[in-house]
Design a protein that fits this description.
The structure holds two protein chains of two kinds. Chain A is mostly beta strands. Chain A is globular and about 35 Å long. In chain B, 0% of the residues lie in helices and 55% in strands. Chain B contains no helices and eleven strands. In chain B, strands 2, 4, 5, 9, 10 and 11 form a six-stranded mixed β-sheet that branches. The termini of chain B are far apart. Classes of the chains: A mainly beta, B mainly beta. Chains A and B meet through strand 5 and strand 10 of A and strand 5, strand 9 and strand 10 of B.
Chain lengths: 112, 112
């Protein structure tokens, strides 16, 4: 069974540019989560989808971040315009039951 | 805001040494405690999900204990090997929320 995949694995952009991250969850998993880890800090929750609906987006830092999950399959996280403090590792996770989450390898974003 | 602390922040040991580290979390409203193993550029890998006070779980040379009354969990590695080098993350889930709160992790380096 394929795990959670994320694309791209790395992205280097300039401040003010736009970046879109993609997450493909494990097939059949209704729950999809986005997290971010800034270097040296803890992994922090951004938002939670159940199918195509946003269940909880309390962790989204501001309106420069937009997450979508059209059709309830893959999800995208767009940062527009990117700022220096957005640099970090963006993880996606999915689950069929809410207790056990399976993580992707992350997208390493560097904003210069 | 839930406080999840991991100590030590980093640890260097020699191959063959046994080691342990700590995750502390709020002692009230406990639901579950997760341990993950994360190698850079790979997906965080779930090691244990612990739900009951007094739980002890084992996976090969790695084991974990849980004390929900005092709010801590220990992760033990017996006979460390270089391939055990990774960051070990714990994540606390409180009752009523399926969103985990992560600690900052313990970075373990095992020297041959």
């Amino acid at each position: 069974e394929a795990g959670v995949t994320q694309f791209p694995s790395h992205s280097v952009i300039e401040k003010g540019q736009t970046v879109t991250l993609r997450c493909d969850p494990i097939s059949g998993h209704d729950n999809l989560y986005w997290y971010r880890r800034v270097m040296g800090k803890e992994i922090k929750f951004l938002l939670h989808f159940v199918k195509e609906s946003k269940q909880d987006e309390s962790g989204m830092p501001n309106n420069r971040f937009l997450a979508e999950r059209t059709g309830g399959t893959y999800s995208t996280l767009k940062v527009q315009p990117a700022e220096l403090e957005d640099s970090g590792v963006y993880f996606c996770a999915s689950s069929d039951r809410e207790e056990t989450q399976y993580f992707g390898p992350g997208t390493r974003l560097l904003v210069l | 805001i839930l406080n999840v602390e991991q100590s030590p922040q980093s640890l260097h040991v020699q191959e063959g040494d046994s080691t342990n580290f700590t995750c502390s979390f709020p002692s009230s409203n406990f639901y579950a405690l997760h341990w993950y193993r994360w190698e850079t550029a790979k997906s965080p890998e779930a090691l244990f999900v612990m739900t009951l006070n007094g739980d002890e779980k084992k996976k090969g040379r790695i084991s974990a204990t849980l004390n929900t009354k005092e709010g801590y969990s220990y992760l033990y590695i017996k006979g460390s090997q270089p391939e055990d080098s990774a960051t070990y993350l714990c994540a606390f889930m409180s009752g009523g929320s399926y969103i985990p709160t992560f600690g900052r992790g313990t970075s373990l380096i095992v020297h041959p």
